[in-house]
Amino acid sequence: MSAITVSGSFAREQLRAPLTVVLLVAVPAFFVLIFAGVLGEFAKALGGTLEARSATAISAGWAAAFLSGTLGFFQLGSSRGADRRLAAAGLGAARVALARIAAALLLAMTVAAVAFLTLWIRSGIGHPLHAAVGIAAFAAIYIGVGAVVGAFITGALEGSLLVVLVFSLDAFTGPQMTDNGGGIGAFMPTRRAADLLIAAGGGHGSPSADWLGVAAVAFSALALALIAFWLVARTREA
Predict the structure, then answer these.
(1) What confidence tens digit (pLDDT) does each residue in 120-130 have?
(2) For the chain, domain boundaries
């Protein structure tokens, strides 16, 4: 049994419930359609200077981040016993982890695609390719956030609340909310991705250093998620 075959099974497992499929489409569309205007007004109230198109673009990134982080957490949390059994049956912890990452990426990129299409239909995009990459980066980064939380916290309520806490801190201290580049916002995981997406939504370019920074954070987040899935698959139950 190959890791590719298993990753397809993992993705189908997550999509087995019809409500999950509906949420994967409805939630990102809801974020972009409903929260874009609210985010722009809230940013202005806090002293930010977010343009209307940039507000819509950043809402698409947050939609992908929120769902990807939640999916990453619950995928890891619900798979502990099954992954250990698969690893012990001969697949190995590394291949199980790779399959889990592939499934998580498939689901996250589906969410990112829905958010991107909703963004494009709602308001248009100054730089579509840049925006697509920015939204995908949000999704990839939060796969790592959700998986790392799931590796250390087994309780569904506690873990999901922690993912939401990280998401909230990230969202409300980012560049979309304030012109101040300091504070805790400078150390949050999507800081550079938010800069890219805000620029893309407004039709502006970004320096190559920002692209390299986003790529480094996204790949680091996925590497952490891979390690988290591997640790869970190889750890024996007490």
Answers:
(1) 887 777 788 88
(2) 3-234
